[in-house]
Amino acid sequence: MEQEMFNQRTDLTALSEAVEKIKQSLGKVIVGQKDTIDLLIAGLLADGHILLEGVPGVAKTLSAKLVARCISATFSRIQFTPDLMPSDVLGTAVFSPKAAEFQFRRGPIFGNIILVDEINRAPAKTQSALFEAMEERQITVDGNTYILEEPFMVLATQNPIEQEGTYRLPEAQLDRFLFKIEVKYPTLEEEITILENQHQQKTVDQLAEITAVLTVDDIKSLRATIKSLFVEPKLLAYVAQITHETRNNKSLYLGASPRASLAMINGAKAIAAMAGRDFVTPDDIVKVATPVLSHRIMLSPEKEMEGLTAADIVAQIIKKIEVPR
Amino acid sequence: MRLLLLFFFLVAGAFCANATALQKINAAKKEVVVKKPLIEKLDSSKISARRFSEEAIADYSKQKEFIYDDVAPKTTSLWSRFWRWIWSMISELLGGKVSGSIIKYVLIAIAIALVVYLVIKLIGLDLKLLTGKSKEVDIPFDESLENIHEIDFDEQLGIALQNKNYRLVVRLLYLKTLKQLTDKRLIDWQPEKTNQAYVEELSRQSYHQQFVELTYQFEYIWYGEFYIDQPTFESIHQSFKDFNQQTA
Fold first, then answer.
1. Phi and psi of B41, rounded to 5°?
2. CB-CB: which of B171, B191, B236 is closest to A322?
3. Residue B142 pLDDT class (50, 70, 90 cuts)
4. A60 with A54: CB under 8 angstroms?
5. Residue A289 has pLDDT above 90, yes or no
6. How confident is the model at residue A267 (pLDDT cuts 50, 70, 90)?
7. Is A306 left (phi over 0), alpha (psi -120 to 50) or beta?
8. d(CA A195, CA B13)
9. Phi and psi for A282 in degrees, rounded to 5?
10. DSSP readout, A15-53?
11. Quick check: B196 and A255 CB within 8 A?
């Protein structure tokens, strides 16, 4: 009945098929982690970078690698270490005796999908090498600017528990991530399935089965579709009010930037499209609010000592704001 | 043998050093003997001593700048006397416990603060910018003014229907449904809850699926701004009526 009543203004068939294919591919290897997979796909569709945070062994790196494998695009992996230099990421000028001049040798940042593993193990100097690349999709070395190819997506992982040999990511860099996805422990049933799969050696076989289901052009086209989705003006005000509240909340030392509002809208559009709608609802916004805001806000020292988390404060803020209806 | 040699060199060295020192002292004694006369020539020029001019001293003594004994009478202006009176009055009011100068400085500080405050207010500067927090702005939500328990649904629906504003009619019908569900304590109405929260609250009810469909229709029409013509509206209106009868 609904299909006849509300004919979609935007054709989401290709998008729905693509999402289904990615989910099926990831589901072959990753057990559970539904929310993580949904947000990873939403981030990919919303043209954003993603920070995966979780304790060791919860398939953060594997998830990122599998997403990259689902797309036939160039993939680079950079293992961040304390002695990593910006030139190790961006590239460096090397003297060519043959040409008798310095030639720029491209670093691993020149790719479509970049997996930055253990991002918090490199110092701020190396982290800052990513600033321009992540926001402006270009890098500048020795006065020359190099444009990075579209799509460009950084998938970074970090472990929140370990303190030894790690550095807190700069606020400017955190703000450049569309989502911070907290990868949680699997449930008991899921863990049993993981063990069964491993015991029957299914995982290795299934990992080899995963092939690219999307091309670079597909990604570009899907992203264009996402951008065209409709957002009711009152929902824009709802998003602005959520972000604004983070700046006035007494539990917070640092509020979210306008980039957070934009990220919330883009993320909500991707979630809406994945649900088969060409418009955003308040539920879509609420769904992305925590992954968008939790890494962009800073708790006041007293609230941190009380054991509250950024996600708790975001939940409190959402509870304070009336849903436009 | 080595020790004996070492001892011999130490003793010989000591004797040599002693001899050198004695030679230096004797040479110095010889130098002292040759002396020059202390005064070579006497100064025999005439010296005329200068004396103070008695006339000049008398002249200076007559000038008022040099009359130190006389105390100049203090000339206080009317303005100064007024302020002295003010400070004494304030001091008296405070029981004389605080000195006039302290009160003076406190009042000056208050006056400066008042002037700064007035300037900030006049130019409209956001003081919270200094603390890193922006000015609080109330976003004027229409819905904030509406409490589903206070809306006269019959009247509002009548007006919307008369204007053929079907989008607004569907919204009012949905809000009316939520009110009815709240009155029956089937859902816990809270302004900050999303529609999906109510869908979940009704998940165990037999009419759950109907409510899912009503929510779907409301969201497409209200948030999606989908156009609905009269026949479509009639169909939706009927589904709302059926649901409300079921939950009544």
1. -150, 140
2. B191
3. very low
4. yes
5. yes
6. very high
7. alpha
8. 94
9. -60, -30
10. HHHHHHHHHHHHHHH--S-HHHHHHHHHHHHTT-EEEEE
11. no
Taking only the tens place, the pLDDT of each residue in A89-104 is 999 999 989 888 889 9
Contact B223 A235 (CB under 8 A): yes
Mark yes or no for CB contact B224/A230 under 8 Å: yes
Question: What average pLDDT does this structure show over A303-317?
Answer: 89
* Inter-chain CB proximity A281 and B141 less than 8 Å: no
Contacts 24+ apart (CB under 8 A), B78-87: none
> What's the pTM?
0.71
Using DSSP bridges, classify how beta strands A75-79 and A214-215 pair: parallel, antiparallel or unpaired.
unpaired
**Residue among A1, A230, A324 whose CB faces B225 most closely:** A230
Residue-range domains of chain A with CATH:
10-227 (3.40.50.300), 229-325 (1.10.8.80)
Percentage with pLDDT > 70 across chain A? 96
Q: Is there a cis peptide before residue A301, judged by omega within 30 degrees of 0?
A: no
In whole angstroms, what is the distance from residue A87 CA to residue B214 CA? 57
Contact A232 B222 (CB under 8 A): yes
State CA B108 to chain mean position distance: 22
- The segment with the largest mean pLDDT, out of A221-235, B10-24, B57-71, is A221-235
Q: Let me know how many helices (H) and strands (E) chain A has, helices first.
A: 16, 13
Rounded Cα–Cα distance for residues A224 and A280 (Å): 16
B144 to chain A nearest CA, in Å?
Answer: 7
Q: Which residues of B touch A320 (CB under 8 A)?
A: 192
For residue B225, the chain A residues in CB contact (below 8 A) are 230, 232, 279
| Closest among A135, A156, A139 to A77, alpha carbons compared | A156
Structure tokens at A270: 């991707």
